[in-house]
From TrEMBL:
Name of protein: Transmembrane emp24 domain-containing protein 1 isoform X2
Transmembrane regions: 195-215
Keywords: Endoplasmic reticulum, Membrane, Protein transport, Signal, Transmembrane, Transmembrane helix, Transport
Ranges of residues in domain GOLD: 45-127
Membrane among keywords: yes
Species: Galeopterus variegatus (Malayan flying lemur)
Length: 229
């Protein structure tokens, strides 16, 4: 038992020493997921570039959460300039690229069809890279699961991976719910402003009609009075 523990400690120390050089120093750093909200002016087009590793999964989702019509044009191009996605005047969309190419992907949002209304756009990028899986497998090979005091490393690795996937999906769903809430709030505020405006117009018209009726009645009765002699 002590020999197995000593071998495990030596293997773990060797893996930790070699990790910054053998794993962290080879290849690009892992791409982080991200989300962004921006204001797209009327008659303008705005593009974003996102670096991606090779042989990964890129999931992009966008949603128009403010502005008249709640629609926008969206295009997605590969690092080689190939048009992968083209959406015309949509309020939201979700697209997946699998596998990805190493390079910069181009995401463009176009509001050139609108000459008056600006749009508030939210989009999110999610990467699912194989690098994490390779690191976990490297850890499992370095520590030799057979010497882990009867603990099944494969079961632990599978449980951690499942938990990570579910947490990422939960974060994504919460972000989408926040985007839906922002869009509904903007829509309700816009409707409230329109209702208040037209209510004020109706009240003004009613008051004007009432004043005109009073003036008309006064003039009518004044004309009917007998002229004194």
């Amino acid at each position: 038992m002590m020999a197995a523990g000593t071998a495990l400690a030596l293997a773990l120390a060797l893996w930790l020493l070699l990790l910054p050089v053998g794993v962290g120093g080879v290849g690009p750093p892992p791409i982080q997921d991200g989300e962004f909200t921006f204001l797209l002016p009327a008659g303008r087009k705005q593009c974003f570039y996102q670096s991606a590793p090779a042989n990964a999964v890129l999931e992009t989702e966008y949603q128009v959460i403010g502005g008249a019509g709640l629609d926008v044009d969206f295009t997605l191009e590969s690092p080689q300039g190939v048009l992968l996605v083209s959406d015309s005047r949509k309020a939201d969309g979700m697209h997946t690229v699998e596998p990805t190419e190493a390079g910069d992907y181009k995401l463009c949002f176009d509001n050139s069809f609108s000459t008056i209304s600006e749009k508030l756009v939210f989009f999110e990028l999610i990467f699912d890279s194989l690098q994490d899986d390779e690191e976990v497998e490297g850890w499992a090979d370095a520590v030799e699961p057979e010497e882990m005091l009867d603990v099944k490393m494969e079961d632990i690795k599978e449980s951690i991976e499942t938990m990570r996937t579910r947490l990422e999906r939960s974060i994504q769903m919460l972000t989408l719910l926040r985007a839906f809430e922002a869009r509904d709030r903007n829509l309700q505020e816009g409707n409230l402003e329109r209702v208040n405006f037209w209510s004020a117009v109706n009240v003004a018209v009613l008051l004007l009609v009432a004043v005109l009726q009073v003036c008309t009645l006064k003039r009518f009765f004044q004309d009917k009075r007998p002229v004194p002699t």
